[in-house]
Amino acid sequence: MSQDKSGFASGLVTALPIALGYFPIAFAFGVAATKAGFSGAEAVMLSVVIYAGASQFLALALVASGAPLLVAAFTLVAMNLRHVLYGPALMRAAGADGARRLAWGWAWGLTDEVFGAALGEVARGRRFSEPFMFGIGIGAYAAWVSGTAVGTLAGGGALQDYPAVEAGLGFMLPALFLALLLSILTRAAVPVIGVAGVATVAGTLAVSPTVGILGGMVAGALAGLVRK
Amino acid sequence: MRIEVLALALIVGFANYAFRYGPFRFGLGEGRAGGPMARFLAATGPAAIATLVVASVLPMVGEARLPLLAGVVTVLAVWGWRRSVVLATLAGPVAYGAVFALV
Question: Of A38, A146, A154, A173, which has the fewest beta carbons less than 10 angstroms from its beta carbon?
Answer without folding.
Answer: A154
